[in-house]
Design a protein that fits this description.
Elements: H1 13-41, E1 44-49, H2 62-82, E2 87-94, H3 100-105, H4 117-128, E3 139-142
Length: 146
């Protein structure tokens, strides 16, 4: 996903479109493409990676928060639409993920605990497993706080 810190009144339409195209339209196109195969198989798992920012946004990230909120809405709609087809649709809402890029972009950030990529992988593995066959339409926060 993409994001940038821009005050709302200084945000250009091109910047808005760029973020929404990658962060939301990309999910739309990908889910449509894979969804066709899942429909034929009458089985599948859609696991969207959204963001905690969709529900707890920070200033200067309106376009990013809107794109992630759109992913959450799409997740809930498709979960209902596809439930009878054996397809589950869920979203993971991570906090700030501990990656080299995030550390470089936010060297002075004071986060109580960054989210380890492995923590997200564990939730993905659960949602992809048969143990989660009855879980659909969920938005699961992975905030790294214990």
């Amino acid at each position: 996903g993409l994001g940038s810190n821009v005050p709302f009144l200084k945000m250009t339409e091109d910047e808005w479109d760029r973020i929404l195209d990658v962060n939301l339209k990309g999910y739309f196109l990908t889910t449509q493409a894979f969804g066709q195969h899942m429909f034929k198989a009458r089985s599948g798992r859609v696991i969207n990676i959204s963001s905690a920012m969709a529900e707890q946004p920070l200033p200067y990230l309106t376009h990013y928060a809107a794109s992630k909120g759109g992913i959450n809405a799409m997740t809930k709609c498709l979960a209902q639409e596809w439930a009878g087809r054996g397809i589950t649709v869920n979203a993971i809402l991570p906090g700030t993920i501990d990656t080299p890029r995030n550390r470089a972009d936010m060297p002075d950030a004071d986060f109580s605990r960054w989210v380890a990529p492995e923590a997200i992988a564990e939730v993905i593995l659960f949602l992809a497993s048969d143990a989660a066959r009855a879980v659909t339409g969920a938005s699961i926060p992975v905030l790294g706080r214990g």
